[in-house]
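INFO  loader      accepted 1 record
INFO  loader      residues=324
INFO  predictor   begin
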Amino acid sequence: MNLNFIWLALGEAISPTTAAYALATIGLVVHFGFTGLLNFGQAGFMAVGGYAFAITTLKLGLPLPFAFLAAILASAAFALVLGIPTLRLRSDYLAIVTIAAAEIIRLSVKTPELTDITGGATGLNGAAATFNALNPIPDGRYGIGVLTYTADQLWVRVLGWALVLIACLIVFLLIRSPWGRVIKGIREDEDAVRSLGKNVFSYKMQALVLGGVLGGLAGALFILPRSLQPDNYGTQLTFFLYTIMLLGGATTVFGPLVGSMLFWVVLSLSDGLLSLGVRSGLLPLTSTQQGPIRFIIVGAALALLVVFRPQGLLGKKKEVFFSA
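INFO  predictor   done
INFO  writer      dumping tokens
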């Protein structure tokens, strides 16, 4: 019996996709976990960052640092455009606006009129060429058994997880600062914070920009091992990020790391187990039914977690409170 899928599933814990999801979820934790902003448009920030990165390298031919800078500036600008008219809305209305904004971004880049810039419905390919050209790791294969990687695959993992750790450190220091105490106060009772003379709108905007920039960098990291496809930034991406956040803990800095690793390992492992069951005849399923069932498994696990441990794996129950 071939059980290599178990090792491959464990290998998902350090994949660049897992790192990208963790980085985007850290931004979502800044929005929702610490500030109480019900942002359902984090996929939009990832799309803006991914397209800014790809267009800068492929269309403008600029070096890698400018591509990452473009992703940061574009996602910050998107946060400002989105936040100025919406951050005074109640949380449920903010959720509607942000999810709509993300869909506007996704559908806009698919329009035929922008094909020369965004690639239209087919997206863009080759954005990782500039990134791989700066790879300092010698050519070869690295790893053990089925978990072996080329130099380029190892390079994107090293840089991806370095970005995640740097983001964790920055957010950790900010949350422990007076600024962090203010935004956590906004999460619990923004009227009380406003009564103390704090500009609540300004703090919300700062949190939106910070979390959005992390989402934009995650979007750039997300396309390095693959082509840029607009449909990858659908609404389900934001829901996956919320799942990861709830798994690790909505009010924790390092919860997104644990949640992202667990999410992708369980998803990959359940897919491997279902495939094994189908091939052996134990499960009367078709290959097209495997995908939905593995998400049902993850969803059931999340439902149980929310019921029995709503604070997540690393969270504290006393912090699971958000103002209406």
